[in-house]
Amino acid sequence: MGDCLFDGLPCSVVSKLTDVPKRILIGRALRSDRLGETLLPKRIALPVFASDPLSSVAYAPGEVLLVLSIAGVSAYHFSPWIAVAVVVLMFTVVASYRQNVHAYPSGGGDYEVATTNLGPKAGLTVASALLVDYVLTVAVSIASGIENLGSAVPFVVEHKVLCASAVIVLLTLMNLRGVKESGKLFAIPTYVFVGGVFIMIAWGACRGLILGETMHAPTADFHIKAEHQGLAGFALVFLLLRAFSSGCAALTGVEAISNGVPAFRKPKSKNAATTLAMMGLLAVTMFCGIIALAMSTKVRMAENPATDLIHNGSPVGSGYVQNPVISQVAEAVFGKGSFLFILLAAATALVLFLAANTAYNGFPLLGSILAQDRYLPRQLHTRGDRLAFSNGIVLLAGAAALLVVIYGADSTRLIQLYIVGVFVSFTLSQTGMVRHWNRHLATEKDQAKRRHMVRSRAINAFGAFFTGLVLVVVLVTKFTHGAWVALLGMVIFYATMTAIRRHYDRVSEEIAAPEGPSDDSVRPSRVHSVVLISKIHRPTLRALAYAKLMRSDTLEALTVNVDPAETKALRDEWERRGIDVPLKVLDSPYREITRPIIEYVKGLRAESPRDAVSVIIPEYVVGHWYEHLLHNQSALRLKGRLLFTAGVMVTSVPYQLESSEAAKVRARKRQEWNAPGAVRRGPAQGERAKEPTTRN
Prior knowledge:
Oligomer: single chain
Strand content: 5-15%
Number of domains: 2
Number of helices: 26
Structural class: alpha/beta
CATH class of the largest domain: Mainly Alpha
Largest sheet: 5 strands, parallel
Shape: elongated
Low-confidence stretches: 1-18, 29-37, 672-696
Mean pLDDT: 77
């Protein structure tokens, strides 16, 4: 048999095997009316939603220097100007998204803005871009964290893929426990990292400017073998644009706050806007500080360090491990092996792992909204036991793990795929906001409100222009380096979601209830009931008794002759007991059971198309997972085939074996332990799901 229900709860094999470990790893289920208790204050929301842009300062400065190194050390003097451009862009995006969270506080973020103002296709494009970017955020953040940790723990570098996959599993379990609970875990390392970077910047500035000390990075004495020495003209401009596009990795995750507005405490929009401003200020200060310290300590980075980094006149060789910029700066400022150096190194690795949490909050929420709009499977709109969107979390983890395996957990390769999606969403979102303000200005008469709208429109218009320009730069400079993979991923997501929406629309149209009478609402002329039997025992007698209660127009018992001796014994006992239901025997020369029954039922339907056929199947209810393998297999196959036959209703008549008592006890315990319904519909904001559902 398939899933059997006790007191409204299924006792499927999966739930039996996973229920206890699930409770241990994830925790007890929360009631739907406790959703408000999971809302976040600003101090927790900052590390939850802003850990990605805050942690990106650990690798974004290094990406700028890596690109500039193509032209040699002489090109490093452009890095402060690139940092200024990134800062201007960051403030522009933050200011733009502060308008978004006030205008669209429902949590749809860029997707809702684009869909409402630019149409469904633009909204779906934004959604595709964000889904790809969230997956890449997890892969890049964890790969970068592994590399930072690997500078201190060689085992991690030697087993990068395994360690990265393990971190993904750990983060997934933490997020399945719920947003607020995971946020508390993530807050401490995030704040330690931010504090450590600010201490490093302050102490570095004090040593260099006030004490007049000279600080040297471990690579300060290295030289860089330039791939293209003395670049000028268009080639130099292209190199600077590519370095700028790499530095724009610092902006990834900015949009997550606009998607997570519903997770904030009231006043939601105000708290989200404040958190955005805090995130922007912290990120640009740390980014600029690290760039400045990298220049003053003479950090040297190369895209191919084994051959392009020269020490004492010779390449450093393949055995050299190129540490990230932040690690080299920390060593120069604090000293290698010092307490603050170790603390910052550990916090950096941790916060890079936890930066993926931005995606773990953004992807499932966006997936839920898309599922509600029928662009993704409805299961993604399901809240799990801890009121998190569990299916979306698991899907994100699987996609990120696949990328980590394919790219060998190499952040340099993965980051080339990065930031394309986020700038697509930035540009379309800000363009949509301009149309939003234009629409409201056409009807608004209050002059104070109009002035506010005009100011907001100007901010969003500048944001749309600037992010659109950056998008073009990113596409031009990164396309051949891997951006095409991200674009391909967006196309795949777009096509898949379009196909899912078409399917749901087609099914919805097909099953819509008509205004007038239809074949589905008209009572059948007659009902033919057929009870399937193999031998006479208690389940058979119970099924026959139930069938008689239905008072069908005709009732017969049906068996298949696969063994003449057994069939004869069945006939004899049938007559001896005087069972007042006619027994029909179907011949099966090839010893098949399913096909003869299917053909017979179809024959009944063909003879009387206006009649309904009710097939009644006695089934065993068992209590242990291994017993499912020993019983009801024929019934499962039959039900699977009969589902595709129009006008045929299938009814299971359960018979509880003694072993089922154990399952009843387990089911009662589960009912007392947690709320009924491990699979729950995600309720609308502040609204509890009203329809009863079954557990997984």
